[in-house]
């Protein structure tokens, strides 16, 4: 063994150091409070400790009618004054009415002015000037907080949209409006608020039933282990039962088509052709034609003949595939520690995801507050231009555009760092993809090395190394970090291009012409195919690296040509393996799911008293089913890697050895018998 792809290894280490530096820089400049806390029109955080807004945790909008939708309110800036308040309004009121009655109803004024700008307490100021300068809102409406923002308190009464049981309200400008005018400004809020209530109930269900969910996942793990052990004895039986079942079902289909064809004989109109009746929206019409059933029968007969011919000509290769599946089960039985290696890969990927997410948040919040001119007059030439709130009142903008204000818009900046934040985000995504692919590659190479040590042992299990998994992991890290990083780099580049294409497709949606849509669709399809091909090549290249210790390009080339020389065996083994593992996942997830269903619906008398009281029994049920499938997928991914490794070793064994005393086969006795040899040649001791 020697170090491979050293240059890529050095580049990989440098990139990791640079990635750490990027995270540090983002941490210094970023401020996640910008995500946690809403920001008012003055760039101040609502609810931030040790500030004037410490007890004002909710954002209030002066005129919510100016906001087109909740998406604008949450993600962008609504073109109205925004203020931090301690609570949302709980009543209808207008500034005109409150000002008119402030002398003999001071309590109403004191309540209303908490939604005015801080320090404003001049009810004698004319209404026109107050509304022009936006010192106070023209109206307040009953609201409730959502995502720390005040939204209208909508409800439906007898199918009619209401706010606080009222269908109309005064807008504070002399007009009476219907609450439906608020619909656009708060479209979908009720559904989201209902979802929040459902979310709380779901959280309660998880808090009550979490240990039963863990028990279900443990049962899934035991069933997955049991299935892998039983594959040594049942792989062939399961496969042939499925094949003959398919043949039988197709045979029944042929008979049924013939019966329908014969039954329609002599019925008026049944001898018409599909061409005669043309296109019909009611497809039952076609089932009244003899020609339809004749076509079905011919198609099914063709499929039946193809399957039977494939079984006849590929029977030996199918037997080899089944023998390799049994051998894989035997190998895992000797190296049980490999079943738990996916936990290591999961932890590595979890670290990558966490670091990427934190870095992305800090980068996104790295800007300084940017203020823009907000004017009521649409013809104001200064509207949406940047401004300085400290010097804004000394400029002539307020004279040319009465009522204009300098309000907070977003976070950004003009420094070199802020100009390249998008590039940094792109680099963050790229290195994240590179690291995730490296973690997967490390797992594949480690497992391949462990299973290869099993295959190439003269006497199984006596000649298997003491700690094959840990030895393989050490070799992969010590000698082949560069090669694994090289393969991961190629895959990360293709994945980044796919991400960019998806981003462009999303941004250009609605503005594309037919040619642009066609071009983007073709590019996305091509790069999807390229990614799948690279994953296949990389997987087998890592196996060759684990076996021979060569660099990535050489290993990929040798693996590709070795597979091409055995392309039929590859296809058969791949489909047989996919079928059996898919069957195993369905059996594990389905079996545990049925058991969980009977348990959580109190249909198991023995455990009826132990079942927790739930809001939705389907919450832990779906969690158990999905979790069981993922657990089974984790175990079976090890098994699939084992079978792929043994297959490449098997192909190498056939090409390098001839079964003689000088070059004995390393394959098992069952594989040797399938190849037509009567007995194994003696192996070296």
From TrEMBL:
Its main location: membrane. The keyword Iron does not apply. One of its GO terms (molecular function) is antiporter activity. Choline transporter. It comes from Donacobius atricapilla. It is a multi-pass membrane protein. One of its GO terms (cellular component) is plasma membrane. Belongs to the CTL (choline transporter-like) family. The chain crosses the membrane at residues 7-28, 210-230, 237-255, 293-314, 334-358, 431-458, 479-501, 579-601, 613-641. InterPro entries: Choline_transptr-like. It holds the Pfam family Choline_transpo. Coiled coil: none annotated. It is found in: Cell membrane. Keywords: Antiport, Cell membrane, Glycoprotein, Membrane, Transmembrane, Transmembrane helix, Transport. This is Choline transporter-like protein. It catalyses: choline(out) + n H(+)(in) = choline(in) + n H(+)(out).
């Amino acid at each position: 063994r020697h170090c491979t792809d050293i240059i890529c290894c050095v580049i990989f280490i440098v990139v990791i150091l640079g990635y750490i530096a990027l995270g540090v820089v983002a941490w210094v400049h970023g401020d996640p409070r910008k995500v946690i806390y809403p920001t008012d029109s003055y760039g101040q955080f609502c609810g931030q400790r040790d500030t004037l807004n410490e007890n004002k945790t909710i954002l209030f909008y002066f005129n919510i009618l100016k906001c087109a939708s909740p998406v604008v309110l949450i993600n962008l800036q609504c073109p109205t004054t925004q203020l931090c308040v301690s609570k949302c309004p709980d009543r209808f009121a207008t500034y005109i009415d409150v000002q008119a009655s402030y002398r003999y109803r001071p309590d109403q004024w004191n309540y209303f002015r908490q939604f005015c700008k801080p320090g404003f307490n001049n009810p004698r100021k004319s209404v026109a000037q107050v509304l022009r300068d936006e010192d106070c809102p023209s109206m307040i409406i009953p609201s409730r907080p959502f995502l720390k923002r005040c939204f209208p308190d909508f409800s439906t009464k007898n199918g009619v949209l209401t706010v606080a049981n009222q269908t109309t309200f005064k807008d504070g400008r002399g007009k009476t409006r219907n609450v439906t005018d608020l619909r656009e400004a708060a479209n979908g809020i009720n559904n989201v608020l209902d979802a929040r209530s459902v979310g709380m109930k779901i959280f309660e269900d998880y808090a009550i039933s979490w240990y039963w969910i863990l028990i279900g996942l443990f049962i899934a793990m035991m069933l997955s282990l049991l299935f892998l052990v039983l594959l040594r004895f049942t792989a062939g039986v399961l496969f042939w039962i499925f094949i003959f079942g398919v043949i039988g079902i197709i045979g029944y289909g042929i008979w049924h088509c013939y019966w329908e064809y014969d039954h329609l004989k002599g019925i008026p109109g049944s001898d018409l052709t599909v061409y005669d009746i043309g296109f019909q929206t009611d497809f039952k019409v076609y089932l009244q034609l003899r020609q339809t059933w004749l076509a079905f029968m011919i198609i099914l007969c063709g499929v039946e003949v193809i399957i039977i011919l494939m079984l006849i000509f590929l029977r030996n290769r199918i037997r080899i595939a089944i023998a390799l599946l049994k051998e894989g089960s035997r190998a895992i039985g000797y190296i049980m520690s490999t079943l738990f290696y996916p936990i290591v890969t999961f932890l590595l990927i979890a670290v990558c995801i966490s670091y990427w997410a934190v870095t992305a948040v800090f980068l996104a919040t790295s800007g300084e507050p940017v203020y823009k001119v907000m004017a009521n007059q649409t013809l104001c030439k200064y509207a949406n231009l940047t401004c300085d709130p400290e010097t804004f009142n000394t400029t002539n903008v307020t004279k040319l555009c009465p009522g204009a204000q300098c309000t907070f818009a977003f976070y950004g900046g003009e420094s070199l760092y802020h100009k390249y934040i998008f590039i940094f985000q792109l680099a963050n995504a790229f290195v994240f993809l590179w690291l995730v692919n490296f973690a997967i590659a490390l797992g594949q190479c480690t497992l391949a090395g462990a299973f290869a040590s099993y295959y190439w042992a003269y006497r199984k299990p006596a000649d298997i190394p003491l700690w094959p998994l840990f030895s393989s992991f050490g070799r992969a890290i010590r000698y082949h970090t560069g090669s694994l990083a090289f393969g991961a780099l190629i895959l990360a580049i293709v994945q980044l291009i796919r991400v960019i294409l998806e981003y462009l497709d999303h941004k250009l949606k609605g503005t594309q012409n037919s040619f642009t849509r066609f071009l983007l669709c073709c590019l996305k399809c091509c790069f999807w195919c390229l990614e799948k091909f690279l994953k296949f090549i990389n997987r087998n290249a890592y196996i060759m690296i684990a076996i021979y210790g060569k660099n990535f390009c050489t290993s990929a080339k040798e693996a590709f040509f070795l597979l091409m020389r055995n392309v039929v065996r590859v296809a058969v083994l791949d489909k047989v393996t996919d079928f059996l593992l898919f069957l195993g996942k369905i059996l594990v997830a389905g079996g545990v799911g049925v058991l969980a269903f009977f348990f959580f619906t109190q249909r198991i008398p023995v455990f009826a008293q132990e079942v927790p009281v739930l809001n939705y029994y389907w919450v832990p049920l779906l969690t158990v089913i999905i979790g069981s499938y993922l657990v089974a997928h984790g175990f079976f991914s090890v098994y699939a890697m084992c079978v792929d490794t043994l297959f490449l070793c098997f192909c190498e064994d056939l090409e390098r050895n001839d079964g003689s005393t000088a070059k004995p086969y390393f394959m098992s006795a069952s594989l040797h018998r399938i190849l037509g040899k009567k007995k194994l040649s003696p192996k070296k001791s």
